[in-house]
Design a protein that fits this description.
single chain, 230 residues, alpha/beta, 4-stranded antiparallel sheet, 8 helices, 40% helix, 20% strand
Length: 230
């Protein structure tokens, strides 16, 4: 099952288009609502991993939307976007149930960092999985041992870290930059070909000899792990 999509509730077409294109390029699923009322109905489905709410919305404000969701018991992480930057505005939003605030204009990298932090916090609050599985590929997180079709696969520490990143959200596109940052650290040279080298190694170990290749290349964008035939 792939990572739950992010719901953006934003009525400014320039901002919503910027957010959709940027987040999809980073491998996130995205759904858009242009009014507070529409956003509330979509959020009530409980299908989203994170909500990004503009404060000023037609229909109902982002603050009212957030307050309504919390009153109904929905605990999905909420990131508020606002042109209002006073401490009082932010405190009011946090009191109504928002988890974080970002003031417009903002750098996209900062938005990504806030999203990652909120999603990570949500994962830490859930019971930790003891194993990850995609099709017949299994990664035992306690022993850090991989197997496919019941046969153990010998992997190095970096190969295990790479595989865990891909298996943590099956179907999600991981850019080269995301892989470098998560597996090798933020100071790794972005022009290095180390990702390509490790992709070849992983393919040889987890896919060779099996009818379905799980590790997919999305040309020019990155890699994903799933059992689709595409």
């Amino acid at each position: 099952m792939s990572q739950s999509p992010i719901l953006i509730v934003e009525d400014d077409p320039r901002v919503s288009d910027f957010l959709q294109r940027g987040l999809r390029a980073e491998g996130y699923g995205v759904q858009l609502a242009r009014t507070g009322t529409e956003g509330l109905e979509l959020a009530r489905t409980g299908e989203h991993g994170l909500l990004i709410l503009d404060v000023m919305l037609p229909g109902m404000t982002g603050l009212d939307l957030c307050q309504s969701l919390r009153a109904e018991g929905l605990q999905v992480p909420v990131l508020m976007l606002t042109a209002l930057s006073t401490i009082e505005d932010k405190v009011n939003g946090l009191k109504l149930g928002a988890d974080d605030y970002l003031t417009k204009p903002f750098a996209f990298e900062e938005l990504l960092a806030r999203i990652e932090a909120l999603l990570r916090r949500g994962r830490e609050q859930r019971p930790k999985a003891t194993a990850l599985q995609v099709a017949d590929l299994v990664l035992d997180l306690e022993r850090m041992q991989a197997s496919r079709a019941g046969k153990p696969i010998a992997l190095t520490a970096k190969e295990l870290a790479f595989l865990e990143l891909l298996m943590s959200a099956p179907g999600r596109l991981c850019s080269r930059e995301r892989i470098l940052s998560n597996v090798w650290g933020v100071h790794e040279d972005p022009l290095t070909n180390v990702v390509d080298v490790y992709v070849r190694r992983l393919r040889a170990k987890i896919d060779d000899g099996h009818p379905v290749a799980l590790l997919k290349t999305v040309r020019g964008l990155g890699y994903r792990l799933d059992d689709s035939m595409a």
